[in-house]
Each structure stands twice: as C-alpha cells, then as structure tokens.
C-alpha cells in the first residue's frame, strides 16, 4: 500500500494519484469486488503507462499504492469526498458514517505518506516539470448524456506555462486534445496545486481516455506519444 517510488536521472517527476485498486485487508468497503476494476476505484491503465513513460523519459515517479475508494489522494485533507461514500452512482457502504478517528487514521496511513513521498522526490530531483498521470471513463453512469470525445485532455489551474506547449505538442501529433476537459484543473487539482503551483513549478495534468489503454500495445503507443510531447514541453522550460 505504500507508494511506488522510481528514481530517474532527468529533471522530470511523474505522479499517479489513482493508479492502484488495492484495498487493505483490514478495511471493509462492503462492495462487490468487481467494482475494484472499474473507474470509480482506479484510473485504469495509469500504473503501466506511468512506469513506461518513466522509462522512456528516464524520469522519476511516485505511484499511488491504494485505491481512491479507500482515500482519494488528489483531494484536500478536509474535502467532503476524501473518503467517498459514493462515486458515479455507486454506493460505498463501508465508508458511510466513519468516525473522525477513523478518517484521521486513514489520512496518516495513506494521504500523508504519499504526499511526503512526492515532497521528498521534489527535493531530491529538483524537477523543472511535474507531470500528473490520470485516465478517465468515456462516459459517466450518472451523466450518460455528456459526451467525452477527447482521447486525451490536459488540465491546469492558474499556471499554464507547461499546459500550453503540451496541448500544442499533442495537437501537432494530430490529436483532439481537451483543454481543461473532461475535468477542469481549476476544480480538481489538489496534488498539483500543492506540489507544483504551491512551489512555482511548471506542471501538466494528463488525462487519457481509459478505453484507449486496454492492451500492452495501447500502453506502448500512448507512452511513446506522451514521451515525445513531454520532452518537447520540457524543452520550452529549459
């Protein structure tokens, strides 16, 4: 359940908040186990994609080791959805009515070590670029009328230094790129707000559609495309 830490040699740091669907044996969510393979539990494909991208870029990485159904690492410690009682219409009974003591215990066990690991890697690597890796579902159960046509989206909050060249690099590859889609980085950006915007570090928050990350060939193709675009973006920041 501890985050996976990968050491690279280039000044680029990758982070993957939702790469795991692991639930510790001593935490009972009381859900159908099949739910752990769905988007509410894990950003599908991001573990393999982040590892391969780290190889191609010779970059460092911090990869989450626990499911966001246990605790969402990309949320503020006091956020209402930190320990979700439901997600995209799926109820998580084991998270209902938790005591303050239990919530604080999960913070200490998962949230604090993960973000401490990112802080330690920033201090070690001194990155000139942070890259957050996520994936998104083609449609939401609770909002089926919303179309999500983008194969990839780039999210950001106030700092657009890296987002703009990254969007341009991906569009230069002929891609339809979501600009703060399918989510807005001005609303869902805790990890990057804390570790990048809070330090004045350029960053990009990448969202790849999960149905495009189903096979090893998919992962390799996206890793190659993203490596080229991230490298081009990093060069603009040198």
List keywords for this structure.
UCP029730, 16% strand, alpha/beta, 238 residues, globular, Aminopeptidase, 9 strands, N-formylglutamate amidohydrolase, single chain, seven-stranded mixed sheet, N-FG_amidohydro
Structural notes for this entry:
The protein is α/β, with parallel strands linked by helices and 238 residues long. The protein has a single domain, classed as Zn-dependent exopeptidases (Aminopeptidase, 3-Layer(aba) Sandwich). It contains five helices and nine strands, in the order ββαβββαββαβαβα. The protein has a seven-stranded mixed beta sheet with strand order 1-3-2-6-9-7-8, with helices on both faces. A two-stranded antiparallel sheet has the order 4-5. Helix 1 packs across helix 5 and helix 3 packs across helix 5. The longest helix is centred in the middle third of the chain and has 26 residues. The chain is globular.
What's the helix and strand layout?
Layout: E1 4-6, E2 12-16, H1 46-57, E3 60-63, E4 86-87, E5 90-91, H2 100-125, E6 129-136, E7 152-155, H3 163-172, E8 177-179, H4 190-195, E9 203-209, H5 216-237
Parallel strand pairs: 2-3, 2-6, 6-9, 7-8
Antiparallel strand pairs: 1-3, 4-5, 7-9
Helix pairs in contact: 1-5, 3-5
């Amino acid at each position: 359940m501890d985050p996976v830490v990968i050491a690279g040699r280039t000044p680029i740091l990758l982070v993957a908040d939702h790469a795991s669907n692991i639930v510790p044996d001593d935490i009972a969510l009381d859900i159908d186990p099949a739910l752990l393979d769905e988007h509410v539990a894990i950003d599908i494909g991001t573990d393999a994609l982040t590892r391969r991208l780290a190889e191609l870029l010779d970059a460092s990485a911090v990869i989450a080791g626990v499911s966001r159904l246990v605790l969402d690492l990309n949320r503020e410690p006091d956020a209402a959805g930190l320990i979700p009682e439901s997600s995209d219409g799926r109820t998580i009974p084991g998270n209902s009515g938790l005591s303050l003591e239990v919530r604080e215990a999960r913070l200490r066990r998962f949230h604090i070590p993960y973000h401490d690991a990112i802080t330690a890697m920033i201090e070690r690597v001194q990155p000139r670029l942070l890259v957050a890796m996520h994936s998104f579902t083609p449609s939401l159960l609770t909002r089926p009328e919303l179309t999500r046509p983008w194969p990839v989206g780039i999210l950001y909050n106030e700092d657009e230094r890296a987002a703009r060249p990254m969007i341009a690099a991906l569009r230069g590859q002929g891609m339809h790129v979501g600009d703060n889609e399918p989510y807005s980085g001005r609303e869902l950006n805790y990890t990057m707000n804390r570790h990048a915007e809070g330090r004045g570090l350029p960053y990009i928050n990448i969202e790849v559609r999960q149905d495009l990350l189903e096979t090893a060939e998919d992962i390799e193709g996206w890793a190659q495309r993203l490596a080229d675009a991230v490298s081009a973006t990093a060069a603009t920041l040198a």
